[in-house]
Amino acid sequence: MAQKAWYWLKRKLHPVPHVKVPTAAFFTDVKAEVYAEQLTIADAASFKSIDVSELIRSPFEAEQSPNTMQYTGRFHHLSDWTVRTILAQSCPKRRASIVSHFIQIAEVLHQLRNFHSEFAILSALCSAPVERLKLTWSRVPKSRRRTFSTLCELLSWQDNFESLLEHMDSNRGPCIPYIGFFLKDVYAAHPSHEKLLIMLSMMEKVLSSMPTHQTVNFNHLRVWPNMQHLLEPCPEQDLKGLGSFNFMVSQELEP
């Protein structure tokens, strides 16, 4: 009783930003392909709007790089939306069903070569509030868990995304990249870097690949306005402090 009272008090003290979280029935009724395609349509448009000059200037400042910030904002929104959609369910069976569906969405995103949204969903599933839900994960089909493990290995941070780089090189085609992949190298190649020659080499490698990836085309995919509205980030959304709140909700669901 005391724990529930504390949970209620914390929720009052730290209001949760508005997030359009679907019901479990609605979420799983919509095919994974539909979610993946709608995310990909919006991600492609956002990624194509980024000018290379934004990465050269200040990729982490909204005034200097508005399109880059919007693109990274989509990543954070989707990651949070994934966590919140899972935690919104009080029933372990329903949570497992949603986790399984998100894994399937990530798999389709991978097939579409949308690494941006794929990474956002996988990072959410690997986040502390979701990863600790042992009862929930135990009810996710083994085949889905194997798929999840395979995707996580490909998008691992280990050795500077070596697995992802190898995958992208082997396919030799445009994609919607995980933005951190670019920002990581651009940040390392910032003009303040001591080794100028290495900096220029890194910068050239990163920036030269941007135009190629921005030729990615998904005009053949159908736009579903209602789904686009559901997946669109809320302008007023503030993610500060939300991580600790999500973890608190997770503990309430599975102590």
Shape: globular
Element-level helix/strand string:
HHHHHHHHHHHHHHH
Q: Give the beta-strand count.
A: 0
Report Rg.
19 Å
The secondary structure category is mainly alpha
How can the largest sheet be summarized? none
Average pLDDT works out at 80
- Tally of DSSP helical segments: 15
From the N-terminal CA to the C-terminal CA, the straight-line distance is 14 Å
Proportion in β-strands? under 5%
Low-confidence residue ranges: 1-17
User: In which range does the helix fraction lie?
Assistant: 55-70%
Summarize this structure briefly:
The chain is 69% helix and 0% strand.
Helix and strand topology:
Elements: H1 2-13, H2 24-29, H3 32-48, H4 52-56, H5 66-87, H6 92-111, H7 115-125, H8 128-131, H9 134-138, H10 142-154, H11 158-171, H12 179-188, H13 196-213, H14 225-231, H15 242-253
Walk me through what this model shows.
Keywords: Guanine-nucleotide releasing factor. It comes from Nephila pilipes (Giant wood spider). One of its GO terms (molecular function) is guanyl-nucleotide exchange factor activity. This protein is mainly alpha-helical and 255 residues long. It is built from 15 helices and no strands. It has helices spanning 2-13, 24-29, 32-48, 52-56, 66-87, 92-111, 115-125, 128-131, 134-138, 142-154, 158-171, 179-188, 196-213, 225-231, 242-253. Helix 1 packs antiparallel against helix 15, helix 5 crosses helix 7 and helix 12 (179-188) packs antiparallel against helix 13 (196-213). Mean pLDDT is 80; it is low at 1-17.
Q: Can you give keywords for this protein?
A:
255 residues, guanine-nucleotide releasing factor
